[in-house]
Amino acid sequence: MVIVDGAKRIVEISKPPNRIVSLSPGTTEMLFAIGAGEQVIGATSWCNYPEQVLSLPKVGDMNVNFEIVAALLPDLIIGDASLQPATAERLESLGFPVFLIQALNITGILDSLELLGRVTGNLDIAQTLVIELVEDLRTYRKAIASSPLQAQPVTTLLLFGTDQLYSAGNGTYLDEVIRRAGGDNIAAGARGQWPQLSEEYILARDPEIILLTFGDPADFLNKSKWRQIKAVRNNNIFSLDPDQYNRPTPRLIKGIANIQNLFLQVRKEG
Q1: Looking at the 3D structure of the chain, how many domains does it have?
Q2: N or C end of the chain, less CB within 10 A?
Q3: Strand, coil or helix: what is 183?
């Protein structure tokens, strides 16, 4: 098979892969979701879903141990184009075929699932999953159309922690998740895909809800200036599962329903 991967690289795969090493939690989840889990023989120490991954040999974290990878004798290595271009180049120089996905947004997630289905020989399962996820997205859209969120999206602040105030900017999969759930992402107006927001920026936009993938909601209650924010005054601060919401996977798309319910709750409270 000769196929173009998510990084627009032409990859030649000489035989169906039976020994796959996955280099990121997102790619690992996708492989198991499309029925390729039994083909995965190595993953990173950050890969923890599904549970079967925990017993796999570990090839490092974001810093890949090339010796361990080589010892596993993989016939295909799958990684993330946004995270590991240099690692992919090094592995290819060692003679290993490397396939990269690019899942910057929801369309990228769906495309990556189908691509992985093709290269692993699990296309039917991958396409069935994509159809299911597209139907989920239609359901979310219909729910918004018949709710107050259509005319009045919930102004939303999503943070990866309460200290350095990093968020998800315009065009990222988390920005899209917020919009598809019926929210208005205040970080979409900041520079960059993963901007660091200032306290002044947040206070000026006065979000109605705060979503945390890391950090303690109590941190906002312990600072007097944060108590000016509508979300803090109304106790609309919610912790999200970081493994589900920080990774571009089918679980992320399924998780839109949870956020939509939070938005509807906020709008109902007025």
Answers
A1: 2
A2: C
A3: strand
